[in-house]
Amino acid sequence: MKILIESIDQGIWDAIINGSYTPKHIFDDVQVNKPWTQWKGEERRRAQYDCNAKNILTSSFNMDEFFRVSQCKSAKEIWEVLELTHEGTNDVKRARKHALIQEYELFKMKQGESIADVQKRFTHIVNRIIGLGKEFDKEE
């Protein structure tokens, strides 16, 4: 999803990760949200990123996924629900990462396995570990 969304516009991905943009101004020495009617061109464009992100995300869902996030107010909130649903809590991710690292460290070719299958299995393990936040140095 990240690759697709960034290819459309990196501002849309930013709205998913950092939340929607709401223009602000100072009123009586306090920062408050600007009324929509006072937004300028660039402010409207930046605020539109969240709407675009919600559209892209929800358009790619089946009905079960859509209903899971249908009450979310922002793309960031949708993304957080999806992360929790599909990746689990931080504790679950940490446990999964440790199990995959152990699988990586004990990796070896299985009896009768082709080189192509070994490479595919190894790449799958490494990609899943990277997806959970592990960074490999050159020696690894």
Number of strands: 2
Q: Please work out how many helical segments DSSP would assign.
A: 7
Task: Provide the low-confidence segments as ranges.
Answer: none
Secondary-structure element pattern, one letter each = HHEEHHHHH
Mean residue pLDDT = 91
Estimate the global geometry from the Cα principal axes: elongated
Going across the biggest sheet, name each strand in turn: 1-2
State the major sheet: 2 strands, antiparallel
What is the share of helical residues?
55-70%
Distance between the termini: 28 Å
What class, by secondary structure content? mainly alpha
Q: Please compute the radius of gyration using only Cα atoms.
A: 21 Å
Proportion of beta-strand residues: 5-15%
For the record, the count of structural domains works out to 2
Secondary-structure topology with pairs:
Elements: H1 2-8, H2 10-18, E1 24-27, E2 30-33, H3 41-59, H4 63-69, H5 75-87, H6 90-105, H7 115-131
Antiparallel strand pairs: 1-2
Helix pairs in contact: 1-2, 2-3, 2-5, 3-5, 6-7
Describe the protein in words.
This protein is mostly helical and 140 residues long. The protein folds into 2 domains: 2-87, no CATH class; 90-131. It is built from 7 helices and 2 strands. It has helices at residues 2-8, 10-18, 41-59, 63-69, 75-87, 90-105, 115-131; strands spanning 24-27, 30-33. A two-stranded antiparallel sheet has the order 1-2. Strand 1 (24-27) and strand 2 (30-33) form a beta hairpin. Helix 2 (10-18) packs across helix 3 (41-59) and helix 2 (10-18) crosses helix 5. The chain is elongated. It starts with a helix and ends in a 9-residue tail after the last helix. The mean pLDDT is 91.
